[in-house]
Design a protein that fits this description.
By secondary structure, the protein is of the alpha/beta class. The protein is built from 13 helices and 14 strands. The chain has a seven-stranded parallel sheet, sandwiched between helices. Helix 1 crosses helix 8 (about 235-250), helix 5 runs parallel beside helix 6 (about 155-175) and helix 7 (about 205-215) packs across helix 13. The chain is globular, with a radius of gyration of 20 Å. The termini are far apart.
Length: about 350
């Protein structure tokens, strides 16, 4: 356990994928009291007495006042961070990632409550560029340009909203008294990530859950644009360690933006699918061999979609200031994730498959 004293923390978005892993990690590291806030806390499989579970939306009257009045640190994870939603419900995405969080930023600044805000690697946009607009291999927090697509490409509504809130937070820190740290996650993965359509959610989940849905149902894994896009995937345990170090090192982390990702786990989406299919076959050899199907972005996500072909973080700053380096290799992380999905959903999918169809009456 860390010797650093961490006072009461509010985790907004505690019922989501990242939050449900972060809350128990904070308890283990710091033994602190936590206000765990989300509209749905069913994923938070932690019922420790030190955690106060608050089922509410961040925009609800009184919520911001409540958490900033008794918590010395707020970790904000709330957003609608599903690419399938960016061009289908863009106004809701903008509200969740910007409008609804403005009062939180303002109140934290007024009360000098430390704000650890989760932004996104999406702010970098289509490609990695340096300050002069020249291509670079990796995306850097303080040097890369942020190049988004045209307004008609609604896929960038999320990135634009996140970038604008970053600028508001930065301004409060530079020209006011807000103690802040901004985190830009790069494709963090782990158990309990997203939902499976028709089981505990509707629509299209992010890529890992999308692939698991196909594997468990014996359907082809959809590869948008053939799956040539590259991403640097990081296990959620490495994210937890980084956030703990941000809390432990307030002087080093204050006023900083950190990329958190694992450049050593840079693979194409097609390669990710093959790795997951291989792990699935080892765990459940009786299932049919996985198949893959190329689909267009417009057919899969609808009109207005755009994408980043390659997204690799420069993490030297986190290494220098936090003493942090991601540890978990993708090949080592995936089997446990695949197993967790299979154990959580396998029987439910099989039951749904065997359920008799109900025909609507004429």
């Amino acid at each position: 356990m860390s010797e650093a004293r961490v006072p009461r923390v509010a985790v907004l978005g505690a019922g989501g994928f990242l939050g449900s892993h972060l809350v128990p990690a904070l308890l283990q590291r710091f033994s602190c009291e936590i206000d765990a806030v989300d509209v749905n806390l069913s994923k938070l499989e932690c019922h420790d007495a030190r955690v106060q579970r608050i089922e509410a939306r961040v925009e609800e009257p009184g919520l911001v006042e409540q958490v900033t009045s008794r918590c010395q640190t707020v970790i904000s994870l709330t957003a609608l961070c599903n690419p399938a939603q960016y061009s289908t419900i863009p106004l809701e995405v903008i509200d969740a990632s910007f409008t609804h969080l403005l009062p939180l930023v303002t109140r934290c600044a007024e009360r000098k409550v430390r704000l650890i805000h989760f932004s996104t690697a999406e702010v970098y946009g289509r490609t990695a560029l340096d300050a002069q607009g020249h291509p670079t291999e990796r995306m850097h927090e303080d040097e890369s340009c942020l190049m988004l697509g045209p307004v008609s490409r609604e896929r960038w509504t999320y990135a634009c909203a996140k970038q604008l809130l970053e600028r508001v937070i930065w301004a409060h820190g530079q020209h006011g008294a807000l103690p802040f740290t901004i985190i830009r996650p790069f494709n963090t993965i782990g158990p309990r990530m997203d939902f499976l359509p028709g089981i505990d959610g509707d629509g299209t989940p992010r890529v890992l859950a999308c692939f698991m849905n196909a594997l468990l149902r014996g359907e082809p894994l959809p590869l948008v644009g053939g799956g040539a896009q590259r991403r640097a995937f990081m296990d959620v345990s490495d994210m937890n360690e980084a956030v703990c170090r941000v809390l432990e090192r307030p002087k080093q982390a204050d006023g900083q933006i950190f990329n958190l990702g694992n450049p050593d786990n840079d693979v194409s989406i097609a390669e990710l699918g093959r790795l997951m299919a291989g792990a699935f076959a080892e765990l459940w050899p009786a299932h049919a061999a996985a198949k893959f199907q190329a689909v267009s972005a417009e057919d899969f996500y609808g009109p207005g979609y755009d994408d980043t072909q390659e997204r690799i973080p420069d993490v030297r700053k986190a290494q220098q200031l936090l003493g942090w380096k991601p540890q978990r290799r993708l090949a080592d992380a995936l089997p446990a994730i695949v197993r967790d999905y299979g154990e959580r959903y396998g029987a439910r999918i099989e039951a749904a498959r065997k359920a008799p169809c109900r025909l609507a009456s004429a």
